[in-house]
Write a structure and sequence with these properties.
- The complex is a heterodimer of chains A (about 325) and B (about 425).
- Chain A has about 325 residues and is α/β, with parallel strands linked by helices.
- Helix content of chain A is about 35%, strand content about 15%.
- Chain A is built from eleven helices and nine strands.
- In chain A, the strands form two sheets. In chain A, strands 7-6-5-8-9 form a five-stranded parallel sheet.
- In chain A, α1 crosses α11.
- Chain A is globular, with a radius of gyration of 19 Å.
- By secondary structure, chain B is of the alpha/beta class.
- In chain B, about 30% of the residues lie in helices and about 25% in strands.
- Chain B has 13 helices and 19 strands.
- In chain B, the strands form three sheets. In chain B, strands 1, 2, 3, 4, 5, 16, 17, 18 and 19 form a nine-stranded mixed sheet that branches. Chain B has an eight-stranded parallel sheet with strand order 6-7-8-9-10-13-14-15, sandwiched between helices. In chain B, strands 11-12 form a two-stranded parallel sheet.
- Chain B is globular and about 65 Å long.
- Classes of the chains: A alpha/beta (about 325), B alpha/beta (about 425).
Chain lengths: ~325, ~425
């Protein structure tokens, strides 16, 4: 394990049933998650990548939207902690037959899961489950609202690479308006003390975004200059032409992260992307695969952070020592 | 048959009367407002001590769901909720199934109302056939059958030429056209107000400018045609400014707002409670303040409930999928009274916005206690505090963000045509 500075969070207890958003977390709670993740990261480097911490616990992933990375990351996190994981996606659930979310929730509850990891296209959907079910609900992305574990794994990666968030300059570039990753990251990084800048065409900047405590700049070059961390957001190509941007060509020319743009970056800047990437659109392959990129570290750290979340939500009352 | 409502404070803005007095009712009509104790001794006497006695409330914006959606509301159940709210006359929108776009549906509504309603129901006909915004509905036919106004309400007439023709045709028949003024192409998929709260929640949102653009179009068309236009549920500061200016220019326009637009902001949506989803959406505090100011200076004439019943199946779903609207007949008065409590409006101003002015908008004989008028009377205690237990609502639906909220001001007695229909919590 690499040497990382100690991040002594105040001695706080995790007393939440659910992880629904970053907005309601305190900086100490976030640091607790990151510290916990740090101790779990090592498990994934062992030859036998499994500890019995969550033996007997059932984790359901309930995905109303297609996703590979996030679902697999949660599944691997659960399995490495010995939880039983069950996956429900729209193709195998009854969603398409018109079952309501509440009926789905009641049916799942009847099978006594310990946690439900939920992705849904509508903001607020996980809150419907959280207020009705005894199981812990983990929001794995609700519409354009929040994606808390993504922000936590991003923060973990930044902390690993940069040590501290104090006065760290972080730029988020792309479709801020429709991005749950952007919202969760803005909450998370500002709580941790970073200076956050956002940039994108005006069609992708939500109204009064500066009230989230971020600086707005209009060109990618300005956003990249002086940034310690450059976080690119995924462009949804299906929004092209209709509302947000005229063409891939126009977007990539003015808002794509290319080697040319990177020439204006700090030498030790890191480049992040939550994935999946549109190569040649918001990010060029040379940058995505280049020396600045920590994109695959994000994926690796995603497992550790999700193990930490599952542990904090489900593993209380024993078992932690088993992990060490 | 004589009735005496004694010991209260009578407020009848239409007659310019306000003060301690007794109200005499005879043969279903108002027989006079008399000095305390000066009423006839041989009448049935009802005490209104500590209460305000005013004309029965007139709610010009409701959805009664009959025909077609009787599982949400019927004319019978809606009228009982209305009576409990002190409403003695209400107009119901045309978005039933079938749509009220021809005389036979208008007649059906009136027939059901005569048979089952405990207060007066006035149908509003559609402007366009099937609310589709493509061709004019049979306006003359509906008028003859008893429609009091025209509106496509939430199905906004986007085509400005068609709207112009609808206004002209309505004018020929002396009918007011009630508009839901929102540019739906700008609203897009919006389910809440666009602003800082929507930025935080990530819900698709509609800018307040969508309302302002369409209010401007509608008052401009009112100027062009000389027709009477009534802007339903005004929610924005910009909308209030445009209407104020239009009135100053002498355009024939009136406007209403609803209790939720003067008591709630888009902050309420943070709970993701689908009962806060309403069309147009809840706005910001700045808008709320401007709408209240509009009521105070007469830019906005009336307060209406926009009673929009929906069952749990329509509301207990994800926010984007939920139907819009909330029930409001029973809370119309207490929520509005908050403005008097906050000294934004005088009691007389508020009562005027709930009686005389809305009656004038749709041109019905109601909203006054003048001698000879139909004896539609509401008596309420402006100070009584109570908790709104929606499980006991007389509406068939339960969709309100005010469930469990403490209300101040409670209807004690509702009289329709000289007959007591609601008294102390019970339909008589």
């Amino acid at each position: 394990m690499s040497e990382t500075p100690t991040h002594a969070a105040k001695e706080i207890a995790w007393d939440r049933k659910d992880l629904l958003d970053i907005k309601s977390l305190s900086a100490d709670e976030i640091q607790l998650v990151l510290n916990t993740a740090e101790s779990f990261k090592e498990i994934s480097q062992r030859e036998i990548k499994k500890v019995p911490t969550l033996r007997g616990k059932t984790v359901i992933t309930l995905f109303y939207e297609a996703s590979t990375r996030t679902r697999v990351s949660f599944e691997i996190a659960g399995k490495r902690l010995s939880a039983d994981t069950v996956n429900i996606s729209t193709s195998t659930s009854r969603v398409q037959k018109g079952e309501t979310l509440i009926d789905m929730a009641k049916n799942l509850e009847a099978m006594a899961p310990d946690a439900i990891v939920m992705r849904h296209n509508v903001p607020g959907a996980p809150y419907i489950l959280a207020s009705r079910l005894a199981a812990s609900i983990i929001n794995a992305g609700d519409g354009a609202h929040e994606h808390p574990t993504q922000a936590l794994l991003d923060a973990f990666t930044i902390r690993e690479k940069k040590g501290s968030f104090d006065k760290l300059k972080i730029s988020l570039i792309g479709d801020i308006a429709h991005s749950r990753v952007a919202r969760s990251n803005i909450y998370c990084l500002t709580k941790l003390g970073a200076d956050v800048t956002v940039s994108g065409p005006a069609t992708m900047l939500p109204r009064e975004v500066e009230r989230l405590g971020v600086r707005v700049v209009s060109t990618i070059r300005e956003a990249v200059k002086d940034a310690d961390v450059i976080m690119m957001l995924r462009i949804q190509k299906e929004r092209m032409g209709k509302v947000l941007f005229p063409s891939v060509r126009d977007y990539s020319r003015f808002f794509g992260l290319t080697p040319d743009v990177m020439r204006g970056a700090l030498p030790d800047a890191i480049v992040m992307h939550p994935g999946p990437m549109n190569r040649g659109v918001e990010i060029s392959s040379e940058v995505a695969d280049g020396p600045y990129s920590v994109i695959l570290d994000q994926v690796t750290n995603g497992v550790a952070v999700r193990m930490a979340i599952l542990y904090l939500l489900l593993g209380r009352g024993g078992g932690y020592e088993d992990a060490h | 048959m004589k009735m005496l409502i004694e010991g209260g404070t009578v407020i009848d803005p239409a007659a310019g009367f306000e003060g301690p007095a007794d109200l005499v009712i005879e043969n279903g009509k108002i027989a006079g407002i008399v000095n305390p104790g000066a009423g006839p001794k041989d009448s049935e006497t009802i005490s209104a001590k500590g209460c305000i006695v005013c004309p029965g409330l007139v709610d010009i914006h409701t959805h009664l769901r009959e025909p077609g959606y009787e599982y949400k509301e019927t004319i019978a159940s809606g009228s009982r909720a209305a009576a409990a709210g002190g409403v003695t006359s209400m107009a119901c929108m045309a978005n039933t199934n079938p749509v009220n776009d021809n005389g036979s549906v208008t007649e059906f509504i009136l027939k059901q109302a005569r048979a089952n309603a405990v207060m007066r129901v006035y149908p509003i006909g559609a402007v366009t056939k099937g609310l589709k915004g493509e061709a004019l509905a049979e306006i003359g036919d509906m008028r003859e059958s008893g429609a009091v106004a025209l509106s496509d309400d939430g199905s906004v007439v986007a085509d400005s030429d068609l709207m112009r023709r609808g206004l002209e045709y309505a004018k020929t028949f002396g009918l007011t056209v009630v508009t839901h003024s929102e540019d739906m192409s700008l609203v897009g998929e919006g389910v809440m107000n666009e602003g800082f709260v929507s930025t935080e929640l990530g819900l698709p949102a509609a800018p307040h400018e969508a309302e302002e653009i369409m209010i401007f179009r509608d008052v401009t068309l009112a100027a062009l045609t000389g027709a009477r236009v009534h802007i339903a549920h005004v929610t924005t500061a910009g909308g209030v400014r445009i209407i104020r200016e239009a009135k100053k220019r002498g355009i024939n326009v009136t406007a209403e707002t609803c209790p939720h637009y003067i008591t709630l902001t888009d902050d309420a949506v943070r709970t993701f409670d689908t009962n806060t989803k309403v069309n147009p959406p809840l706005r910001t505090q700045q808008d709320v303040d401007a709408v209240i100011e509009g009521l105070a200076d007469g830019t906005i004439d009336a307060v209406a409930s926009d009673h929009a019943p929906h069952v749990d199946d329509d509301k207990q779903v994800e926010f984007i999928y939920a139907k819009s609207g909330m029930i409001g007949l029973e809370t119309l008065l207490p929520l509005s009274l908050a403005l008097v409590e906050a000294k934004k409006l005088s009691m007389r101003q508020l009562i005027r916005a709930l009686t005389e002015l809305p009656a004038g908008v749709i041109g019905i004989d109601a909203g006054t206690l003048k001698t000879g008028a139909e004896a539609d009377v509401t008596v309420f205690d402006p100070r009584e505090k109570w908790v709104y237990d929606v499980s006991k609502s007389l509406s068939k639906s339960r969709n309100t963000p005010f469930a469990g909220a403490t209300m101040r001001g409670r209807v004690k007695l509702t009289v329709v045509g000289g007959k007591v229909v609601y008294r102390d919590g019970t339909i008589v």
